[in-house]
Design brief:
There is one protein chain. The chain is an alpha+beta fold and about 100 residues long. The protein has one domain: Orthogonal Bundle (Arc Repressor Mutant, subunit A). It contains five helices and three strands. A three-stranded antiparallel beta sheet has the order 1-3-2. Helix 1 packs antiparallel against helix 4 and helix 2 crosses helix 4. The longest helix is centred in the middle third of the chain and has 13 residues.
């Protein structure tokens, strides 16, 4: 079992952050992946199997989610094999008229 740091600082809502979040959440499969990662952490092979997609395709989606700061990963040595695990980060963001109005563009 791995314990993750939930005390991470919430990133400031910038134009780049809004675009990154929008891009990450714009695909229904990525939202499904995020939902699964919120429920528990997953080893990439098992997650790909659960979703019935290739690991290569899963990695493409996970990279977008990780770039947006929605998920994190680490590599663990288990039974002499390196295994990559992913989990969802704690997040909460509100995009409002006021937030957009106050953006530095």
């Amino acid at each position: 079992m791995c314990f993750h740091d939930k005390s991470r600082k919430v990133p400031e809502l910038t134009l780049a952050r809004i675009v990154s979040l929008g891009d990450a959440l714009s695909n229904p499969l990525r939202v499904k992946i995020l939902k699964l990662l919120i429920e528990k952490e997953w080893y990439v092979y098992e997650l790909a199997k659960e979703l019935s997609i290739s690991r290569q395709l899963l990695y493409l989606h996970l990279r977008k989610l990780e770039k947006a700061g929605l998920v994190s990963s680490d590599i663990r040595l288990e039974e002499n094999k390196a295994k990559k695990y992913y989990w969802a980060n704690e997040f909460k963001f509100i995009i409002s008229n006021e937030a957009i109005k106050n953006l530095e563009v």
